[in-house]
Amino acid sequence: MRLSLGTRRLSSSEITPARALPTLVDDARAGLLAPPRQLPPKYFYDDYGSQLFEAICATPEYYPSRAEASLLSRHATQIIERAAPDHMLELGSGSSRKTRLLFDACDALAMPCIYWPFDVSAQMMLDAGAALVTDYSWLSVHALIGDYTGGIGNLPLPAQGRRLIVFLGGTLGNFEPDQARAMLGEIVGLLRGDDLLLLGVDRVKDTARLEAAYDDAQGITAEFNRNVLTVLNRELDADFDLAAYRHRAVFDEQRARIEMRLVSERDHSVRLGALDTTIEITAGEEIVTEFSHKFTPASIEALLADAGLIVDTHFEADQGDYSLLLVRRDS
Ligand code: SAH
Ligand code: TRP
């Protein structure tokens, strides 16, 4: 589908998954009916969840977003000169706020490109796209609406032209290792010749700082985490009582990941209308809502190597807080 949205420089397409994807009902059946209970993270990002994520990025505790923005502002010129993209595809683009630093460099270098943001959160992406075509007179934006876990091999990208694939925000870390390898494998499939991947990943560090980044004092991350229950209430005709759940973020040093959980504070039952069933949840029981893997230079290089990728340039924030990597095919 193609919509004309007031300007010929902004269009959008809904991406049909390349392979069958589980529905929310499937995911709820697989993840909620019995402990250990777990949900895929994409359900956080309804319109309200996307706004909450933007608010998380502004909290004093959530350093990754600022670290990544500062790396981008420092190195955007070098990145754009090196990548010389005709087409910039961004996975999980959200508000595209940090991507503007790349467009500023395109602007300064007089190296225009076409932007292909891909996100499950359509409204956030279309609002961002409208603002981008206003602010950058040379920019065309083709918004791709869909779920990248359904595959990225069938996107309507032109066959010609140099590509830069952008994957920021540490979002690769939200996949489990096998899924992350599979995702990188699909990215390799889109890279030809001198095409590059720009990848942002968070680094292993002091546990207290990591846990604080996922449990801010204002409680915005807690609200974001609980919002997934609002999504379930709406989409599954469920009746989760949000007040019964406490947000918890713990760093598992062994697995090098933050685990986000919702902890039930009391025994209660929850009706899942769309599954035509009721579940019993006991006090202290947890629903795992997200992982956020943290990397070392060696662990990210190994993960990339498994997918046939190699680091071209590695930009690090102060004291190795965060990594921004330009990556190419290892061939
Ligand atoms: N890149 C932005 C946003 C990161 S938050 C930044 O760095 O600030 C993760 C983004 O990925 C959100 O915009 C969310 O809507 C999107 N997302 C999460 N799961 C997705 C999926 N399965 N398919 C497509 N987009 C997804
Ligand atoms: N990609 C982000 C990250 O792993 C997503 C995120 C940030 C997040 N804060 C969160 C997800 C809180 C769930 C809860 O850092």
Defining key terms:
single chain; 331 residues; alpha/beta; Rossmann fold; 2 domains; four-stranded mixed beta sheet; 27% strand; binds S-adenosyl-L-homocysteine; binds tryptophan; transferase; MeTrfase_EgtD-like; EC 2.1.1.44
Q: Can you put this structure into words, describing what you see?
A:
By secondary structure, the protein is α/β, with parallel strands linked by helices. The protein folds into two domains: 24-58 and 210-293, no CATH class; 65-149 and 162-205 and 294-329, Rossmann fold. The protein has helices spanning 24-32, 47-57, 63-83, 99-109, 122-135, 177-190, 207-213, 220-235, 297-306, and strands at 3-4, 10-14, 37-38, 87-91, 114-119, 140-145, 163-167, 196-202, 245-252, 257-264, 268-272, 277-281, 286-293, 309-316, 322-329. The strands form three sheets. It has a nine-stranded mixed β-sheet with strand order 1-2-6-5-4-7-8-15-14, with helices on both faces. Strands 3-13-10-9 form a four-stranded mixed β-sheet. β14 and β15 (322-329) form a beta hairpin. It binds S-adenosyl-L-homocysteine (SAH) and tryptophan. The site of tryptophan (TRP) has 14 residues, from α8 and β13. It comes from Salinisphaera aquimarina.
Task: Summarize the helices and strands and which ones pair or pack.
Elements: E1 3-4, E2 10-14, H1 24-32, E3 37-38, H2 47-57, H3 63-83, E4 87-91, H4 99-109, E5 114-119, H5 122-135, E6 140-145, E7 163-167, H6 177-190, E8 196-202, H7 207-213, H8 220-235, E9 245-252, E10 257-264, E11 268-272, E12 277-281, E13 286-293, H9 297-306, E14 309-316, E15 322-329
Parallel strand pairs: 2-6, 3-13, 4-5, 4-7, 5-6, 7-8
Antiparallel strand pairs: 1-2, 8-15, 9-10, 10-13, 11-12, 14-15
Helix pairs in contact: 2-8, 3-4
Bound molecules: S-adenosyl-L-homocysteine (SAH) and tryptophan.
EC number: 2.1.1.44
Keywords: Methyltransferase, Transferase
GO molecular function, one term: L-histidine N(alpha)-methyltransferase activity
